[in-house]
Amino acid sequence: MTVINAFKMDGLGNDFIIIDQRLKIHDLTKKQIMKICDRKFFGCDQLIYIKKSKLTDAELEFYNSDGSKAGACGNGTRCVAYLLSKKDPQIELKDEILLGASRVQISKIFKDKIVETNIGRAFFDWDKIPLKKEVNTKNLNIRLIDNDGKEQFGGMAVNVGNPHVIFFVENIENINLSKIGPEIENHELFPDRCNVTLAKIINRDLIKVKVWERGAGLTKACGTAACATAVAAHKQDLSNSKVSIEFKLGKLLVNTEDLLNIKMIGPVSDIEDIKIEI
User: Between the chain's N and C termini, which has fewer beta carbons within 10 Å?
Assistant: First the structure.
């Protein structure tokens, strides 16, 4: 049996187990990752490896709870940035952390566990999302059926490190995301699957959302989904360039003024030291 020293954190309930691989490498199998993420064991939405990097403060590697690899994780990046600013003796007390994953991300640490992360660029081209064929990414014409049997067709595709599809609806509670989430995640248009977001425009400064994450299922929050929703809403002139994305446990503020450098800011949790025996 292997004993792993790790950390547990969350961003608005979107929770992570974080393993620092820089001193000791733990080569976990897909089955072991799934076990750690299982709510009957430790439980988390994603598992994150912190790895050595010559170009940044650290390299990040993300795994979904189904053991699949994720391209990016906004809340996870914010959590790791805060963790390193508090726990890493080499960069302790540093208020700006440079992290590498699918793209280089700069995170800024503020008071009261508030962290801002530069998510990077949004992609709208069909082959950058990616989709299997060339279609109008502003309207994928995917069918949604609400709990009353009413149909609507839509869905805007955006890639902000992960492929996302966003549906703007009148009532996010009147659609069974547990049912339609996995169906759309595995829609034939998405060769790499996708994250699914239901979004309700409250006003130009506030959007409420519910998210089904690729490889993780229903989550209390999702950083890249917040960014994808903000980008999609602003592109369609439904919101301002700075908009709050509201999840069940709180809000993330997303700034899409520069689509090459989308910024997301919000709270992270305390750091919990844990030992995993596996």
Answer: N
